[in-house]
Specification:
The protein is α/β, with parallel strands linked by helices and 265 residues long. It contains nine helices and seven strands. Helix content is 45%, strand content 14%. α1 crosses α9.
Length: 265
């Protein structure tokens, strides 16, 4: 299926992560020019190994001025910014059940990255969106933001807030024919998923601990009707689809790519 994205531009915030790289690769396959914006030390190296039409900026989404400058640099190089993807996710690295296992001070950094970072990106993109009266912005959330996951309450709350903010963005940008949606992954073999496993294992007696693969497979059997991992490329494909003209009537929605973990009427 031709998504008609050729020669368009996309900025992927968190583009050096497991999911972010899959999003970048899919946009490249569709013929897009892509900005990778990420704080990870390997950001520039990942960009070099991708494609000549990839620009990398190593910085943090909590820095609003850096986000604005990143989009400006990309717009100057690509001739504009058509699509933005916020693929940033950070957990506390602690086991948050019950919630008082954490301290209130554990919350601020997680909210800043996952929620304020998304706000920064949306604010920076808004002038381009309003001016060109076309394009899209897609936020990666999580099933944790829909079910009140007790594993990491700051992360769950931040992603729930992001879903609400996405709907505000969708309503505000709709008059300009710019769409906003969210993608909600389930179980993805990523650094974040491993940190959840590690935090849970740390509080268990040694004889009850599981290797990551055993823990993950057990959890998938419990929560996923399709009994399968969600692959990064599944998420990259959805991100590209939501940016395309094929999704021209989809806005303000949370699209679950989770093997059926969360179902809606």
């Amino acid at each position: 299926m031709d998504l008609e994205l050729k020669n368009q531009s996309a900025a992927v915030f968190g583009g050096a992560g497991t999911i972010g790289q899959a999003v970048v690769k899919r946009f490249i396959e569709e013929g897009c020019q892509v900005l990778i914006f990420d704080a990870h030390p390997s950001t520039d190296e990942i960009s070099k190994n991708m494609h000549e039409n990839v620009l990398s900026i190593r910085s943090n989404v909590v820095d609003y001025e850096a986000v604005k400058m990143g989009l400006k640099d990309a717009a100057n190089r690509f001739g504009g910014i058509d699509h933005v993807v916020f693929s940033v996710g950070a957990g506390s690295g602690k086991f948050g059940f019950p919630f008082w296992n954490l301290e209130p001070s554990d919350w601020s950094g997680i909210l800043e990255i996952n929620l304020q970072g998304a706000v920064n990106v949306a604010h920076a993109f808004a002038p381009y969106a309003v001016r060109q009266k076309a394009g899209s912005i897609t936020f990666f959330t999580s099933v944790a933001g829909q079910i009140g996951s007790q594993t990491d309450p700051p992360y769950s709350a931040a992603k729930a807030g992001l879903i609400n903010f996405m709907q505000c963005v969708a309503k505000d940008l709709a008059p300009y024919r710019v769409r906003a949606n969210a993608i909600s992954p389930g179980m993805v073999a990523s650094e974040l998923n491993r940190s959840v496993w590690q935090a849970g294992q740390n509080i268990l007696p040694e004889e009850d601990r599981l290797e990551y693969e055993d823990w993950a497979n057990k959890k998938i059997r419990m929560i996923s009707p399709l009994n399968d991992w969600q692959r990064p490329e599944d998420l990259g494909a959805m991100a590209a689809y939501l940016a395309s003209v094929k999704a021209r009537q989809i806005t303000g929605q949370v699209i679950n790519v989770d093997g059926g973990q969360v179902m809606h009427a």
